[in-house]
Specification:
Blueprint: H1 3-8, H2 14-29, H3 44-49, H4 53-85, H5 90-113
Length: 137
C-alpha cells in the first residue's frame, strides 16, 4: 500500500481521506462540529474553517518564515553582543556577518516568492505586542 493509497482512505477518494483526517483531528482535540444556525447549512464559523490548498500552503510558509526570521534576529543579536564583548576573532566576525547577510537575502527571496513582506511575518500577540521588533529595532 503506497502513501497515496493510505491518503485516499478506505473510500478511495481524496475527499473521503480529508473527511477521515478531519474526524481524527476532531477526536484528538475533542472538537465537535459547529451546529448549523438555521438547520439547513453550515454555520458562518464552519464556513470560515474551509480552506483552499493555496491558502493553506501560503499560511504554512508564512508560519515557517516567521519562525526562521525570529531565529535569524536572535542570532544577529547574539552575534552583535559577542562582537561587543570581544569574544570573537576577526575571522569569526567576518563569517558571522556574511552568514547573516546571506540568510537575510534568502529570507527576502522567499518572501518575494510567496508574495509576503517582512511585516506579514510579524505576528500580533495581542496585549504582548508584536512578535518581531519593527524595522529591525
Amino acid at each position: 500500500m503506497t502513501e497515496d493509497d493510505r491518503a485516499r482512505g478506505a473510500q478511495g477518494t481524496p475527499a473521503a481521506a480529508a473527511e477521515e483526517v478531519a474526524r481524527a483531528a476532531a477526536r484528538a482535540f475533542g472538537l465537535s462540529p459547529a451546529p448549523p444556525e438555521d438547520g439547513r447549512g453550515p454555520s458562518a464559523t464552519a464556513q470560515r474553517l474551509h480552506t483552499d490548498p493555496d491558502t493553506v500552503e501560503r499560511d504554512l510558509i508564512k508560519l515557517v518564515l516567521t519562525i526562521v526570521e525570529l531565529l535569524r534576529q536572535l542570532m544577529e543579536r547574539t552575534a552583535i553582543h559577542r562582537v561587543e564583548q570581544g569574544d570573537l576573532s576577526e575571522l569569526q566576525e567576518e563569517r558571522i556577518g556574511m552568514t547573516l547577510m546571506i540568510l537575510n537575502e534568502r529570507m527576502t527571496e522567499l518572501c518575494d516568492r510567496y508574495g509576503l513582506t517582512m511585516d506579514d511575518l510579524n505576528l500580533d500577540l495581542g496585549p504582548l505586542g508584536s512578535l518581531l521588533p519593527h524595522n529591525g529595532a
